[in-house]
Task: inverse folding
């Protein structure tokens, strides 16, 4: 029934009610009075009233009135708010209200906003949640009411809503709900609804907030800024239509397409004349007439609401506002509002306007808008979802593109869709292309070059790196990058380590089309298509033949030849070597090697490419790298000397060409290469412009290039250079260094004594076992210092320079005391030290200050550590302690204390611990008051072999989702567990005799109880049956050598053990009988010597064609697991699996209906997370398998 509700909602969403402002009530409020009437519900009512939102509460309805009256009131209300609280399900009346609301959702498209107040979704809608338990045991409802209420609760709870767990301050929660109501009421308004506008509610509300309509004692300009086609004009129009009715005593005017009209009429004079003629109710007012003081006085007393659509330059805006752009109160009366839409942010910045940046639509909004135009409803038609997804992903949230593509595909059959979508990137829709191209056409020559470079070659690059790269050839690169951001051609995306520059997908495609307008391949400025690059680089073979012919004729030039033939020889010599296209003038190559075919290049493949400045041959994922480009044994003759960016993953030679002079190089990136040194010989080139040097995973590299003159170097990455012994001393003097990466340089011995750069942020010297001393670092910008796995002889002073919120990892037995790091860090890791106990001695910390808190504290393999401090639980958000067998007990958890902060204020030193991992320790129990760590969502106890018990109050940890007790051999029983627990792992608990008493009530996601010999077969099979019958996706692992008896289909021992054949139900059955509700999969498997993740997969085949596939969740298997047969089971309600689509995304009916009555085979196999581990699959053997189909 719940699924029928959701499907009905999808069908009815296209005719959901329209908000006309004539409803009797804006909101119907449903709540449990005893829980919230005098608390949260009253706060919410007050917040709604403050915004003039009229709400109906069910106390206005007499309980004696029938449910039909309630249905009538719901029809007279725009939307409903349902406040789910702790005792909500105790009231049959509340449950009846929810059932009626759910009925209205289906019948009338009624909108609902659920609020989870001090309860979770699983409490309300879960099959084992508190509401279900109340309905079953307390109300003892009839089977009809039970089903009706449960289905209604699920339908309402599945709507988008709010939860007090996310927003704990009630006033803030009420404010968020009211804003959501306002957005929905705006979305339901006629102007939005009738024009098929999507996602306008939140955007219009934000513009209203910027307009500050509650405070009309000033005059303001509000700017709407964004790329072409993103909906600036549409948004401005929606605001205009909504607000003109609220500003009745205001002169209002919407001036459209200003830039287009300026180009048509050669200026703004006609626009100015028409605008002010209408405002002053006169005719044909000229610009000169507006300078008359009388008219200026009239304007200054006039309150206006004006939209100026598509203003291109600051000068246009200044002329439109009669030169008073900075003095609007002089031009118009107080309370006036002006909205300006533009692609150029400078227009708004110059006017000191408040700016609203129009973002592209999200996935849900994009699907809705596309569907409105392609299917005339709010969602794709059944079996058209995948093809719709292809079209929607192409548009990247641009409303114009979504409307155009949807309208183009409306009414067409699937063959047309497939053909159109397969050639989508080669088909230019003028309605989209012309609007986007207009921004490009207005750029200067240098701006065009910068835009094409980023769109075609550098999309996603960090902003600082782009500016550094372009500065060498483009004056004022910083300003030009900012200008292109302001003109909505670049997007500036904030990342944790800075800002990245990205280009919208449609603009990127426009850039490729611009480049491809040049018909000759060798004349195109930038190439990214693997086939084009292959053609360009392999034409050298033809040119070699041409060169031979020309040289041959040159040798016989003095011979007597007919005049006509002699002229042909001379012409051939003059045209040079490239008889195909003339000189190759390509400036940039970007080749994704994962998409390229293998190619064999000649030694002179790059000869004559003098214009080439950018070359990037790259692999998107490190672990998939293979050799795609092959060179002669002697390597390349040369590379273009003008190269500024050279990135070549898996470069196949031992060195770069000796005829390559890299004086212009800014970025040199050669990874996963057999290169031994960058240049042979003693005469090493000076890399004077180098900013980035990345030679990661060059295992044969023995010598770092000469960097003595590389004063601009910022990144030095040598990770995984196994043969490198020394880092040159001149690296010390590189004063702009930001990153030094020496991880896994296992033979590295000698480092500079210090690093002088004041800009150093990241220093990674991890797993360098021969490095005994860390360089001295005085940088005040140090964010990460990683010496994990590097046995330093003495604690470096650099550890005290790590910034607040940084990362520090230390290793070595020379560390005997807990380092006195007074700053709070993101991560602090101590490994293989000689520390015996942890005490705090911070001489630089004032007595009134709190001790530092670490987001993650790791104490790993500190074998001499005997005890942990009492305030351990307040030190970290995530705590990992491993390999400290001498620790026999954990400190008790005291009540939250109260201490003074250094500023004099009192704060509660509450525990923020949310993750606890204890591995291979000597503890016998967790602290008795573990329930006080109420933020814990994961407890992992690995191989704590002396652990005997778990505190009984663990069930009070309401946030706990994961409990792992792997290899805890001494534990005999488990107490009741938290109801929200999703993952339980008791594998290897040899003494465990019973599972928790409340296991049937838990909402499992994955359960593991292998190698538990004391659990009898009944206890093992109990959670299998209970769990697989209820959840949407569940995984189970336990010891055994047989597939459970209740499996309908199993492998036959004398045939392939990894395959099961199944005869599907015949097509003569009804569609309801054919409808599959889920599939349970099972395999018996064994493995040897494996430590890592693995997941089970199953493909459904007809003959050799795969028609569907499924995958289990990943399991972590480690080398300590006892070698024995294990049973893996997983249940998936998605019985359709991942179906294989033909090109163009064709979809059809579910495979089990399409192939009803036929015999299919289910093939099982295992999958490892990384392709590099594929050879390890031989350690696994599938012995039996089975499937069970649930109809």
Result:
């Amino acid at each position: 029934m719940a699924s029928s509700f959701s499907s009905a909602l999808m069908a009815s969403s296209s005719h959901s009610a329209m908000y006309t402002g004539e409803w009797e009530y804006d909101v119907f409020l449903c709540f449990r009075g005893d829980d919230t009437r005098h608390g949260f519900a009253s706060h919410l009512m007050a917040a709604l009233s403050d915004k003039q939102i009229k709400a109906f509460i069910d106390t206005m309805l007499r309980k004696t009135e029938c449910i039909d009256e309630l249905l009538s009131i719901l029809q007279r209300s725009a939307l409903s708010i349902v406040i789910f609280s702790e005792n909500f399900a105790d009231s049959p009346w509340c449950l009846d209200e929810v059932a009626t609301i759910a009925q209205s959702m289906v019948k009338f498209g009624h909108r609902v906003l659920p609020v989870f107040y001090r309860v979770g979704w699983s409490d309300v809608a879960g099959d084992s949640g508190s509401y279900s338990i109340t309905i079953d045991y307390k109300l003892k409802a009839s089977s009809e009411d039970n089903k009706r209420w449960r289905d209604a609760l699920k339908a309402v709870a599945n709507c988008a809503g709010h939860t007090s767990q996310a927003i704990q301050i009630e006033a803030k929660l009420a404010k968020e709900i009211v804003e959501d109501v306002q957005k929905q009421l705006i979305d339901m308004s006629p102007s939005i609804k009738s024009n098929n506008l999507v996602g306008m509610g939140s955007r219009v509300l934000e513009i209203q907030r910027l307009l500050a309509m509650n405070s009309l004692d000033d005059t303001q300009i509000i700017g709407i800024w964004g790329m072409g086609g993103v909906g600036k004009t549409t948004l401005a129009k929606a605001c205009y239509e909504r607000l003109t009715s609220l500003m009745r005593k205001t002169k209002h005017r919407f001036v459209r397409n200003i830039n287009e009209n300026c180009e048509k009429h050669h200026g703004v004079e006609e626009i100015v004349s028409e605008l002010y003629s209408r405002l002053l109710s006169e005719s044909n007012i000229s610009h000169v007439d507006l300078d008359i003081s009388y008219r200026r006085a009239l304007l200054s007393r006039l309150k206006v609401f004006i939209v100026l659509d598509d203003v291109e330059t600051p000068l246009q805006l200044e002329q439109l506002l009669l030169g008073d752009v900075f003095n609007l109160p002089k031009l118009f009366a107080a309370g006036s509002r002006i909205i300006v839409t533009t692609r150029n942010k400078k227009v708004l910045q110059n006017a000191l306007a408040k700016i609203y940046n129009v973002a592209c639509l999200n996935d849900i909004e994009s699907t809705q808008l596309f569907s409105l135009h392609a299917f005339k409803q709010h969602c794709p038609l059944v079996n058209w979802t995948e093809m719709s997804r292809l079209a929607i992903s192409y548009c990247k949230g641009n409303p114009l593109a979504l409307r155009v593509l949807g309208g183009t595909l409306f009414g067409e059959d699937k063959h047309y869709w497939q053909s159109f979508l397969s050639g989508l990137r080669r088909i230019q829709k003028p309605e989209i292309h012309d609007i986007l191209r207009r921004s490009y056409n207005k750029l200067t020559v240098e701006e065009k070059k910068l835009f094409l470079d980023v769109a075609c070659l550098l999309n996603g690059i960090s902003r600082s790196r782009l500016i550094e790269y372009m500065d060498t050839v483009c004056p004022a690169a910083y300003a030009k990058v900012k200008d292109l951001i302001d003109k909505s051609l670049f997007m500036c995306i904030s990342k944790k380590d800075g800002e990245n520059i990205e280009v919208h997908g449609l603009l990127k495609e426009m850039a490729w089309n611009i480049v491809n307008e040049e018909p000759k391949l060798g004349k195109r400025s930038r190439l990214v298509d693997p086939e084009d690059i292959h053609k360009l680089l392999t034409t050298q073979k033809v040119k070699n033949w041409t060169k031979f012919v020309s040289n041959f004729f040159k040798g016989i030039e003095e011979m007597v030849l007919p005049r006509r033939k002699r002229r042909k020889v001379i012409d051939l010599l003059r045209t040079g070597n490239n008889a195909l296209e003339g000189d190759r003038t390509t400036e940039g190559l970007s080749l994704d090697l994962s998409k390229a075919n293998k190619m064999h290049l000649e030694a002179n493949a790059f000869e004559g490419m003098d214009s080439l400045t950018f070359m990037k041959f790259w692999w998107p994922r490190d672990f998939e790298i293979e050799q795609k480009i092959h060179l002669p044994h002697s390597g390349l003759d040369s590379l273009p000397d003008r190269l500024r960016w050279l990135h070549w993953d898996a470069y196949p030679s031992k060195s770069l060409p000796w005829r390559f002079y890299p004086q212009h190089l800014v970025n040199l990136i050669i990874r996963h290469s057999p290169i031994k040194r960058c240049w042979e010989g003693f005469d090493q080139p000076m890399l004077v412009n180098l900013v980035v040097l990345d030679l990661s995973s060059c295992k044969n590299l023995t010598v770092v290039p000469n960097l003595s003159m590389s004063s601009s170097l910022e990144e030095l990455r040598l990770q995984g250079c196994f043969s490198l012994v020394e880092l040159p001393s001149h690296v010390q003097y590189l004063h702009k260094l930001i990153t030094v990466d020496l991880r896994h340089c296992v033979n590295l011995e000698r480092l500079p004594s210090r690093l002088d750069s004041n800009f150093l942020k990241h220093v990674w010297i991890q797993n360098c076992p021969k490095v005994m001393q860390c360089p001295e670092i005085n940088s005040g910008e140090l964010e990460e210092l990683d010496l994990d796995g590097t046995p330093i002889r003495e604690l470096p002073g650099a550890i005290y320079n790590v910034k607040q919120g940084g990362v520090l990892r230390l290793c070595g037995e020379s560390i005997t005391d807990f380092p006195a790091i007074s700053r709070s860090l993101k991560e602090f890791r101590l490994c293989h030290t000689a520390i015996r106990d942890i005490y705090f001695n911070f001489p630089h910390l004032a007595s009134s200050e709190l001790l530092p808190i670490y987001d993650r504290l790791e104490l790993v393999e500190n074998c001499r550590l005997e005890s942990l401090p009492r305030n351990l639980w307040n030190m970290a958000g995530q705590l990992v302690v491993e390999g400290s067998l001498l620790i026999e007990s954990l400190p008790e958890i005291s009540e939250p204390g109260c201490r003074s902060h250094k500023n004099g204020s009192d704060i509660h030193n509450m525990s923020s611990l949310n993750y606890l991992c204890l591995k291979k320790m000597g503890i016998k129990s967790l602290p008795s008051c573990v329930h006080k760590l109420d933020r814990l969502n994961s407890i992992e106890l690995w191989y704590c072999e002396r652990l005997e018990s778990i505190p009984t109050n663990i069930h009070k940890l309401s946030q706990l989702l994961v409990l792992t007790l792997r290899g805890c051999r001494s534990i005999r029983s488990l107490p009741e567990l938290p109801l929200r627990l999703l993952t339980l792992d008791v594998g290897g608990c040899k003494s465990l005799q019973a599972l928790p008493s409340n296991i049937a009530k838990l909402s499992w996601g994955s359960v593991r109880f292998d190698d538990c010999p004391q659990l009898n077969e009944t206890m093992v099979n109990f959670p299998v049956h209970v769990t697989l019958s209820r959840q949407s996706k569940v995984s189970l692992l336990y010891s055994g050598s047989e597939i459970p008896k209740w499996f309908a289909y199993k492998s036959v021992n004398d045939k392939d053990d990894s395959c099961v054949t199944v005869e599907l139900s015949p097509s003569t059955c009804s569609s309801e009988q054919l409808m599959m509700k889920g599939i349970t999969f099972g395999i018996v498997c064994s493995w040897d010597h494996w430590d890592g993740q693995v997941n089970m997969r199953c493909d459904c085949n007809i003959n050799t064609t795969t028609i569907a596939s499924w995958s289990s969740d990943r399991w972590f298997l480690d080398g300590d697991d006892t070698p024995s047969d294990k049973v893996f089971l997983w249940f998936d309600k998605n019985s359709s699996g991942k179906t294989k689509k033909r090109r163009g995304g064709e979809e059809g009916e579910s495979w089990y209906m399409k192939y009803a009555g036929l015999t299919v085979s289910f093939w099982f196999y295992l999958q490892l997370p990384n392709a590099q581990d594929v050879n390890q699959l031989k350690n696994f053997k599938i012995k039996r398998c089975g499937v069970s189909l649930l109809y």
User: Anything to note?
Assistant: DSSP finds 33 helices and 47 strands in the chain. The chain has a mean pLDDT of 83. Residues 897 and 909 are 6 Å apart (CA to CA).
